[in-house]
Amino acid sequence: MRGTPPIQRRPVTDALRASIVEDLPEIKDIKDAELRAKVIEGWAFSLAGSSYQRISDLPGEGNPDVLVLKRGNQTDHLRGVTRLAVGIAKEMGAAYPELAIDMDVIVAGGLVHDVGKAWEFDPVNRKRWNAVQKQTGRPSVRHPAFGMHICFTVGLPEEIAHIAMAHSGEGELLVRSLECMIVHQADYTFWNTLLAGGQLKLDTVPPATRKYVIDRPF
Ligand SMILES: [Fe+2]
Ligand SMILES: [Fe+2]
């Protein structure tokens, strides 16, 4: 057979689902029971097709080896972005109730915006991409696109799949929803705040970003 072998999946167990709620306790803040269950299924599906046992095993990085946290793992990012997005939504919603922000979409979208990282960060995938970049590209699919695939596969609503797909640079190619824009801003605020505060490993900050924190003469 040509090309990459199909993804090996281990079964999704209740223990795996329980670990996801342990790692992302904000899941309980999603009011809609079906949406809550599908957020858990999304992460379970993602992890079960990866080398990772649970979300907290994923490193605290924006992209593989890029924007690496001095302290913490991927749950610190997901929870931080979700809480920041909730904060933005509450403040803006209080000042402008006519925005009618959907808080369930904010929480669910914050928690799954990086659900594709189990694929993009997986050492097995990264080794393959490094070995056969000419055939696959590197990565073959970035985490926003893979996250969208996961969202649709487990039956998450289009609003959530859109947040996974468009929270990062891919979102510059389309018009973001209101909730996606809030999660996008929360995501960038998370990294930029830690960058400005010296809490990212500097050798993992891209040069174009690094110049704003160390190369400027004032
Ligand atoms: Fe991301
Ligand atoms: Fe993120």
Account of the protein in words:
There is one protein chain. The chain has 218 residues and is mainly alpha-helical. 56% of the residues lie in helices and 6% in strands. The protein is built from 11 helices and 2 strands; from the N terminus they run H-H-E-E-H-H-H-H-H-H-H-H-H. The protein has helices at residues 14-23, 33-48, 74-95, 103-112, 117-120, 123-131, 133-136, 143-153, 158-166, 178-196, 207-215; strands at residues 59-63, 66-73. The chain has a two-stranded antiparallel sheet. Strand 1 and strand 2 form a beta hairpin. Helix 2 (33-48) packs parallel to helix 4 and helix 3 (74-95) runs antiparallel to helix 4. It starts with 13 loop residues before the first helix and ends with a helix. The mean pLDDT is 94. One fe (ii) ion binds at residues 77, 81, 113-114, 187. Residues 114, 143, 167-168 line the site of one fe (ii) ion.
In short:
The protein has 218 residues and is mainly alpha-helical.
- Secondary-structure element series: HHEEHHHHHHHHH
Query: How many beta strands in the DSSP annotation?
Result: 2
* Unreliable stretches: none
What's the N-to-C terminus distance? 58 Å
Which oligomeric state applies?
single chain
Bound molecules: fe (ii) ion
Compute the CA-based radius of gyration.
17 Å
Helix content: 55-70%
Residue fraction in strands: 5-15%
- The average pLDDT value, as a whole number, equals 94
Widest beta sheet: strand line-up? 1-2
By helix and strand content, what is the structural category? mainly alpha
General form = globular
